[in-house]
Predict the structure of UDP-N-acetylenolpyruvoylglucosamine reductase.
Amino acid sequence: MTPILENIPLAPHSTFRLGGLARYFAEAGSPAAIPELVAFAQKKNLPIHVLGEGSNTIFSDAAINKFFLKLGFDAIREIRKDQTEVVIEIEAGVSWDKAVAWSVERGYQGIETLSGIPGTVGAAPIQNIGAYGQEFANVAVEIRAYDIESSSPIVLRPKDCEFGYRISVFKKSGRGRYIITGVTIRLSLLPPAIPAYPGIKEKLASEGISSPSLQDIRRIILATRAEKLPDPRKYPNVGSFFENPLISQAQAEKLKRNYPNLPIFPASGGKAKVSAGWLIDACGLKEKDFDHLHVDKRNALVLVNDGSATFQTVIETAQEIIKSVRTKFGIELEIEPDLVS
């Protein structure tokens, strides 16, 4: 029987260091423990919230009447390998960056530019995490989950997951339905490509590296992230607070004429991806102090909790930033972290 705790502080479970009390909390030591915990939550008529590393979650500072479930299983298994690729099973409780490091050490490429992304493997498909030209959907083979509606384990294929830019079925019609217990991914044994992103190519070139190893790419990516993002252990934050918006090509071309320095990248579906950080900075909001919050001085996408922010001030600050960008550029920003109340 898995112990079920009551009135557990949630602030330690978020890198934003904000949160009230969880009505119930439990840590499942294996997928087999999940059905009994789901049954308990259903008996209490409470929604279930799965906890990862809390790097993309901000909790209300009030008591939250939900059942919070942490996944404590964290194995990585190589299940098939040939001369060109390898297939790996990873349990949901594994730290994502641990999985990347494990793969890079063995010469498996496909997720090396996702180095340093915080969170657990179980959260990766939900957000369809991505960076520097790679994303989870590119390597996904299957996602294993517990289906709360049918009270049974289920396996989903990539086509079932409706992957898009920082989106998946787990954030849309399947939100709250699935508890992801593990993923299977396919990685390549072929030499890695140089990430075609400004800053990465230049750093490799400055070190005289024309054919980088996976270790080279991972090292450069980690260094780049450290330069751009404040350490949440010192400065409580959840990384990017807003998603980079997707706009039409026509709107992108118009904006580029008016703002030649605006970073714009190609996206799927004939869309263009715009730098949300640049938009916020151009509104004069970088380093701006709000009520116990401030916009980071290095990265305008990051909101930092100065230590005594409230859930309400977070919402109000986000709304003010969204309004500023909408007024100046006609673009609607979307909040990236999960706001749980």
